[in-house]
Model the fold of this input.
Amino acid sequence: MAYTSLYRRYRPDSFESVIGQDHIVRTLKNQLASGNVGHAYIFTGTRGTGKTSVAKIFARAVNCLHPVDGSPCGKCECCVELARPNNFDIVEMDAASNNRVEDMRELIDKIGFAPTVGKFKVYIIDEVHMLSAAAFNALLKTLEEPPAHAIFVLATTEIHKIPATILSRCLRFDFRLVPAKLIAERIRFIFDDIGVKYQSEAVDLIAAAGNGSVRDALSLADMCVSYCDGNIDYNGVIAVLGASDPNKLRELATHIADGNVDGALRLVAEMCDLGKNVALLANDLATLFRNTLYIKHCEGAAKELLSLPENVFEGLKQLAQKYTAQRCLGIMRIFSKLEGELRYSSQRRILFEAAVVQACYGDEESKTEELAARVTRIERALAALRKSGFKPTPAIMDAKQVWIHVASRLNAKGFALLASCFRDCKMEMSDSEFVICIPDAATKKMIETKSNVDALKAAAADTPEMGGRTLSFREEQQVSKDIALPYVQDMFGKYLDVK
Done:
């Protein structure tokens, strides 16, 4: 007998066995209980989330003679007949291969025939977005006013491709991605049922790799059963996924975070020579630093959330303690962005190696964020010190340094020229007085104007660095010197008589 894959063998046959879609199951059950069943439904969502399975369960439930909590009983005459693959009351159509207007007209021509067993005839059209525009138009009128015995269930993964006229005639149900925890529970149930031994961490890894799709996760579980020969462990799942050895990956991550370009590139070359896919390697690195951020920020719950083996978790915990959140975030960002670039490149390894070097040096955005974080930490530390009553000793500044602060106040008030006039003046400072020495007549003329003096004194009073000192001026006698004389003497030497 041919082998039946796990996702087919364990396809849900009742609403109770559907996982992760409680909002849809509850609504359909209520409609069945009240008898308010619609004539057209559209199920949309990612592959493997249960659209077709729910459609089949619903198709049997509306015809069941003795439903059990909304689900088909599986025992009555209708349930037994409708469970047969050649029944005429549940019509399944794959729109991917039957998308012509002629196919749709053939279906519409037969819709008038009454059901042979149950009360309703249910038409399930899978991948309905593949229908041509003409086929949609042919379906439109029938979908709006079908015979009383006909119910349409349209299923699609690309709801945006469905014409608005079709959508407006259907009850829409959005199937969500199934949480990894629920998928893991389902896989454990199946493994227990078929007698397969497993590590709990391995099952969690399979569930996470499904990315919310139950079918994808069960297909992967099928492969793991064959590869691991009935005893599924973490390393076996890693091998099936084509993922990197956790220890090697952590070593590469350490080289990158340390900025060790030489060590990182050598290890990349070694891993690529072993046949590792660089796209998977980039994804693994992004995931590793994402997990590190989880451990860094929610250490108490991270172990349960990530479901990693003890040795892997402890290794990532060391990384979380060693590197800043900004550093981890920057590296994660680089390798997350790389996925899209690798998809359309013929030089994947070169792009990956370039990303590794960039991550070693750190991107500018991360450096800015890290600097901002440092400033924030310093500000918090200072605030804590002030709150504790600590008063820092002010830095000792000389007169020139104090004048820089006064000059900045003058500039801000529009007295930039006045500030520049005193820039090269000699300045003295005592405990109570700040003295500006006036060297020449031009500078003296500046303080003969009252508005200038008022501006100087106001700026000094507004400058905390002045420490309340009084601003004053003092004229200084300058010895007049001819600055050209030394050069002339050097040129003419003893032949020059200066009088």
About this structure: The chain is about 55% helix and 10% strand. The chain has a mean pLDDT of 86.
